[in-house]
Amino acid sequence: MAQKFRMPHTLTLLFLLMVAALVATWIIPQGQFQTEVTEAGQTLVLPGTYETVEERDLMSPWQLFTAIPRAFADAQNIIFFLFIVGGVIAVIRASGAIDALLGGLLKSAGSRPSLLMFAVIFVFALTSSAMGASAEYIPFVLILVALCRALKMDAMVAVGMVVAGYGIGYGMASFNPYTVVIAQDIADVPTYSGWLPKLLLLVPFVLIGVHHVWSYARKVQKDPEASLLIGVEPPDLGETSGDYPRMTGRHLLILMGFIAALGTAVYGISEWGWYLTELGAAFVILGIAAAFIGKVSPTETAQRFVKGASELTETALLVGIARGIALIMEDGQILHSIVHAFSLPLSAVGPEIAAVGMLGIQSVLNFFVPSGSGQAFVTMPLMAPLGDIVGVSRQVSVLAFQFGDGFANMLVPTNAVLMGILGMAAIPYDRWFRFCFPLFLKLFAAAALVLVVTVMFGIG
Known about the structure:
Number of helices: 19
Oligomer: single chain
Order of helices and strands: HEEEEHHHHHHHHHHHHHHHHHH
Number of strands: 4
Strand order of the largest sheet: 1-4
Strand content: under 5%
Helix content: 55-70%
């Protein structure tokens, strides 16, 4: 009897994608656009300057393996941030503050989980839309997993809330400095223009996300066998009894410190140019303060931190390998060739189809360039003037970029933040794809409708 096919481990799948990327560098023509460096130090592609490389430089299999340690070095900020978050969350849990919070949430939201779900997704989406938050949500993953487990739902629901909020927020961004500001500047449209319609559209798109996650959650509550995570070992969240501790002043002080650490980091990101290094430092301070306030001994603090960090080793490996896929394509000089090939068909269709085509192209390109700002610098210099030719306004070109970048963020395995979140919740990528791909299609269809209507009525 033939053995039933089993999807390989996520780490194996990502390595196979690295191999596929290497093979692609042997097949796809190597080419480059000319570039210029902006005053901010970003590399900007110049449209109409694409040329293939005359002497093809084939990458060797050896470079596949050297790309792995290089990728880990390149992704070190998010890898070390994950270790810090895992350790600090374990220390906070030792203080009893998280279990007390879970008990309070269960009492207030146990009978209305759909309202809690809307609140979580909407707040995450609004924060991403306004400030470009993404990795900042990682500390919430294990807390939401524990909450969903207590509500007789699985980890997929918890991650669905986080990633749907993050992806929809990026797709419908109004003030996101990493995507909106850069893309509008490149397209030469006023900064933050069109923010009000996008802010109003955020609610219906959030409702699409809430409906998808809540529909799945109800199925799992009614029949645990309907879970997509059957047979998957859940993350170790420590011993959790049905009796949650009462919220004390110490617990409340620790949770307020958690909020203060996040708030300080978010402010620092927007005002002082902070990112994961400073965010990690804020969490280290939080962990020390939580141990002191919660009367956790120094020895137990160290033991809890090491255990919490060690449990994210697999997650760190996933993040590093995911970065390796894009690194190989960059080394193989095929990223610009792919962008050039995708842009050519748009000049032969009408503006409505071209706008939807831009959305599709940006979605696909997110696999190759998962960074929102990086994708803006690579694609917007091409898409903005191309939109002029096919009758698509530059504001719509920016909107198509936002939709494609944001919604594909929820799906592409080259997105280090996504792989970090999935790793924390112990969700294999193939199971996540089965859950998220239908949501991506719903959001894609809604976005395509918005683009068509916008072009037809000359909005923007």
